[in-house]
Amino acid sequence: MGNYNWDWSIVSIYWKAFGSGILNSLFISASAIIIGSILGFILLYFMVFPKYKILKICLGWTVEILLAIPLLVLLVWIYYCMPILFNIKISALQTCIIAMSINLAPFVSETLRAGLDSIPKGYTEAGIALGIPKRKIVRNILIPQVFSEMLPALITQYITLFKLSSLASVIAVNEILHTANNIISETYRPLEVFTVVALIYIVIVIPISKLSRQFEIKDGLTKK
Amino acid sequence: MDLRKNEIGKIVGANLFKSFNTTPVLEDCSFSIRLGEITTIIGRSGCGKTTLLKCINGIETIDSGQLFIETQKGNIPFTEKKYKSNFGLVLQGGFLWRRKTILENITIAPLLLKHPKSETIDKAISLLKKFGIENKKNQYPENLSGGEQQRAAIARALIMEPKILLLDEITFSLDPFNKLDVLDTILKIKDEGFTVILVSHDISFSKKVSDSILYMNEGKILESISKNNFENSNGFGHDFLSLGV
Lengths: 224, 245
Fold this sequence. Notes:
The complex is a heterodimer.
Chain A: H1 9-13, H2 15-48, H3 53-68, H4 71-86, H5 92-118, H6 121-129, H7 134-164, H8 176-187, H9 190-218
Helix pairs in contact in A: 2-3, 2-5, 2-8, 3-5, 4-5, 5-7, 6-7, 7-9, 8-9
Chain B: E1 9-20, E2 23-34, E3 38-43, H1 49-57, E4 64-71, E5 74-77, H2 81-85, E6 87-90, H3 102-112, H4 117-130, H5 146-158, E7 164-168, H6 176-191, E8 195-199, H7 203-209, E9 212-217, E10 220-226, H8 238-241
Parallel strand pairs in B: 3-8, 3-9, 6-7, 7-8
Antiparallel strand pairs in B: 1-2, 1-4, 4-5, 9-10
């Protein structure tokens, strides 16, 4: 390990700051996951059951555009441009939640739509043959089926979003990475601080990742 | 007008045409199927059997022609809402919904259509009992054998109380024991006064179970063969039927 003298006392001194950073990161990610997933479902619903064809085309383009914008660009654009263009003042934390939700929604909608498209036509026809209206077949039978089948893919996306929450540090949101930078400016111990940050991400991400693999393995098909 | 069980009459198709995009599937297809009997439609792959079955059920609409149920009290045309409620359809492969238990698969249609819950569950349990799969009610379709899945799919179709059951390739990929189970189930259904229309490639199964066989080729019914003539048919379906050894 060379001649570097590690000083881990920063962990005991700054544990409260790290804790607050972790909580903020979790709060931002959880809020974005909830809002983004709801938006994703709404997008999916209107794309599957468009009242007007033009609506479907517009939503399709919206999804394409949102998928093309990197989260960092979206974050910075909302934070700096919205107040100038629309005279809307929002806090850095709110900006972060909005940008991450907008970034997540098209992924959720596209993942579920791909799942719906992959379902053989026979599952829908079986419902139609029983006299169930198509809207109810999709809403009550196919979407729950697709959701549980695509859950591992969605969890992977949620994990990615959690990791991307570190981008919020560029607009000074007190999440893990921004907290770490603050601690470094006080202690001048970047190696220890960034090692702790990496460990924090590992400790949070690996169990969730393992959980998602469990979904894949068990596939939820054995009812106890 | 709803059909009664043991109703005397027939399902009539006259000069039916159906195309997908520009590909014709049914071409001047005419037939007559007696109510209360088991009728099997046989023919080469791609000759339009499944499309015909879906048209009879109403999942697919016909481009032209006449389709109706003829009874002593009058006709029920394809366009009437009551027409469709007389039919139950089991598609090839069953298509039981993977993430629903067998009981949920059977009860979901009546429950979504606001039928009373307790009555629906009682009805589902009695159907499962009748088909010998009551112990599988909380299992997911993947955990059932092919024959059990087919019986569950039939139970799902019967919960809506159709009078005519349409079965597409019901013995597809089943072993001989499971085929026997399905054969037994179909005969049981017929004994209760149902009309059964099958589509099958399985000639020996079709001969065992059917009262009559319709031979179809290139979108047309070419011959109707009654049970007495299965072995000595000299018509269009002769070669096809003689394959069932």
